[in-house]
Write a structure and sequence with these properties.
The chain is built from three helices and five strands; from the N terminus they run βββαβααβ. It has helices at 32-41, 67-72, 77-80; strands spanning 2-5, 17-19, 22-27, 45-48, 87-90. 2% of the residues are buried. The mean pLDDT is 90.
Amino acid sequence: VAPTQAEKKDYRLPEYFDRKGRDLSLTTLPTHALLELWFESLGLRWEQLDWSKHITRPCSFKDLLTPEQKLASHWADVYASGIRVSYRLET
């Protein structure tokens, strides 16, 4: 769990608390294993999606830290970095 600003570029998180004059919310960053355990506990089947054919360049999370780096990257590069994963869920 980590703090995050409640005010986002396109929306505002509904639950927040004041900390030194700033509105903060909490976000959770579960591991792949924890997500899959949660899916299993809900009785779901899942398939991790493979975005490798869309990746334009190999990168690490360090290549995606600044706003400029994010803007210069292809949408699938974040999957190459290993910091994001996506699933197809079925009941």
